[in-house]
Amino acid sequence: MLSELNKPMAPIAGYLNLLPIELLEKVLSYCGAQQLGALETTCTYFIQSQLTNRAALARLQLIARAKGLQPDTEKGETWTRLLHFVASQSAAAAQGTAVALGSFHTTALLIPEGETEHSLHAFGRGFHGQLGNGKFVDCPEPTSVAEARRAVNQEKGHPAVVTCGSSHSGLISRRGELFTWGLASSGELGHGGWTPIEVQIPRQVVCLERTRIVSVAAGANHTLAISERGELWSCGRGRHGQLGLGHFHDEGVLLRIDRLIGQRIVSAAAGKAHSLALASDGSLWTWGDGRHGQLGHEQLAQFMALHNNPPVAVPVPQKVKSLLPDKLKPFDRVTAVAAGAHHSMALTVGGKLLAFGANKYGALGLGDKDRRLVPTEVPLADSSGSRSKVRAVQVQCGQQHSLALVQKDGCLQVCATGYNVWGQLGTGDRQDSLRFKVVRSLLGHPIAALVSGDSHAAAITRSGELYMWGRGDCGQLGVQDSRSYWQPKLLQGFRVVHPDRTLRRNGRTCSP
Asked: Which residues form the RCC1-like domain (predicted)?
């Protein structure tokens, strides 16, 4: 019946009037955000009766992090659109764990056409063994990593999460085992021993074999891992304090960051030489290189102003005081973070986008090239005079550019800003941008999540289609050539696995 209701047929409204309201409300309680949106936009009965709006409100009231969120009715926003926004934030965070982009390589959990099971695929530069296939050569198309299947032992646990640093890669199995491979120039693989070393096949990180890992982030030359208990571990290059361990030297094994003991860390991001961690209460912690303002600390900004911009580094995690959760409304608290080479982005529950750090090419999207030393809100609304409500669903940072998935008029759009010499903004040209511009070739595509590497980018649709663009000289776009593409190009013959197939679910969590 719901499939029929998606058709804008006037007589349906008359039939629905004959049904008890209680029955319709019961049916709607089983609908997800997309289904409620489809009903509201294709049948006048649901608009006039407000049934879908009430159903969306009821769903939102069950989602803890949506507390306090209200639709901006003056800009045409409804409870149904607001639910779709909240659901999209969760979907983007989950789907984005299945694809990772490094400096010159890509790893992804893909299902080849005609098959039903997913496996780790890698493509791009392989000079340091970062593709995990036992070789040190480039690969211009997605190739299943047989060594990962043997390492993970798919009879007991499938690959669930991937990450890429500059020249190293990581994988979490569904059982919470962490595997790393590629170049350990400074210990970023976490296997210990002398560095530099190169590991050309996935190898389990034995120092954490008794710890279940649920999330991993790779910077240029360091790695952050989050345990099921919310502890944060780090290894790799530490000369700028980016490991958060209180010193400025490298570490070859993953060590727990003691400064964060007592905090439940839910997500982390790693840049070239700085790190960010988000705690469950919404507090944002940053550390490492701060010379460009990428740590967002007011006290550092004051120090740099007094001492003529000296190089600064923070070796232990510090809270960003301007974003302390007890000083903010619930919907203004941070819910996601991203790190570029020297800039950072934070996303709030209500869809505001905050930027800080280097801005030489407009990566902050603020309309100028001035760096920001503290989190600054990014204007997402366009300059066309549109009164539509715009909310940020997801943000990703490249080396000197940024991507954002935003909701406008109930639809999701891909936007990009910053450096564009390789076409990494996806706008069809190589012009840098100082503000977020819509990637028009992706309009109309049901984008679920974005992923960014240093100079190439990807978008994943709800059905698992993978679009890639930007720098491709090592084959990192997977399209069987070494060209750079200025617009998104569909990766033929594969689809990205859905997170329902990979991520462990907590039964107590209410999904939108």
From this structure: 120-494
